[in-house]
Amino acid sequence: MNNREIKGKSEIANSVKLPKIISLFCGAGGLDLGFIQEGFEVVAAIDLEQSAIETHKKNFPKCNSIASDLTVLGPKGVNQYIKKFLTPGEHVAIIGGPPCQGFSRSNPTADSEDPRNHLPKLYVQIIRELQKDFVIDFVVFENVLGMKDRKHSAKYLALIKGLKRLKFEIFENELCAVDYGVPQNRERIVIAAIRSSNEQSEFKIEKNKGIKTVREAIGNLGDPVYFKKNITASDIPFHPNHWTMQPKSVKFKTPMKFNSKSRSFKLLDWDKASPTIAFGNREIHIHPSGKRRLSIYEAMLLQGFPSSFILEGNLSQQVKQVSNAVPPPLAKSVAAAVKSSLHF
Description:
Elements: H1 3-15, E1 20-24, H2 30-37, E2 42-47, H3 50-59, E3 64-67, H4 70-82, E4 91-96, H5 119-130, E5 135-144, H6 153-165, E6 168-176, E7 184-185, E8 187-195, H7 214-218, E9 225-226, E10 243-244, E11 274-275, H8 296-302, H9 315-324, H10 328-341
Parallel strand pairs: 1-2, 1-4, 2-3, 4-5, 7-11, 9-10
Antiparallel strand pairs: 5-8, 6-8
């Protein structure tokens, strides 16, 4: 995303006095980008991963983004950081999606007591602390559907109750990215919590028409560059993230044997939407040709990122960023629904 686009959106946000956004567990900024595209200004962003923050700074240079462990920084530390940029009494909003691996149904070792599963509680505690100095108009929380499963339900219900105690009206949504212009069958929970003193209209996230297949998203791209030692962005034509690992598994010699249900070797279909784009450390899906894995850039396009967006970090870090991101078109639809509910 270029500086002109960001400046234009920020000017719109200021002109209509939208609440300023604080992004927690921001990652690469997929959720942030959707809100910026709807006219909001993201003034601060925090994430544990340094590579994700490098990506965030590159694409959102005017945002005050830092790499910090929120469990160490704590609610008071977050509040102190935010007061460097905002004046107490200002209207703000909180958006974010804590790491979901502990709740994920695709994680065969998911444990209800995974330390990451306590982050939603921290999310509420940070909101409570920020309410002491700021008017929080709304909160958006994104996570996997598995968070509502029986073994995790206590933590999910605690999140809902915690937000209600903070005087928010809660709207729970189960969304699939393919319904919002993203060629990916990615299902997620999105909770919108609107300050109760606002006169809400009916809260509805409108579906959007858009590309629905892998072919529409990446069918016209040339081959990516294969990773080699000391590779630089200048070695990669077309887009800095259009690169992938050299295929070494013998499975690539007989792509017809790929199992579409396999976790590590999931072959994409040209004429269908992609499944959830990746599972983490280099486990990115197989290109429909069966000859290689997707490039990072192809995965980004299947997530709905614009071609101007660039990820920083090594291959594993880029895979993690793109797989953890909220698809920007879906985020934009959520932002539009929130804005409409607040009568802005």
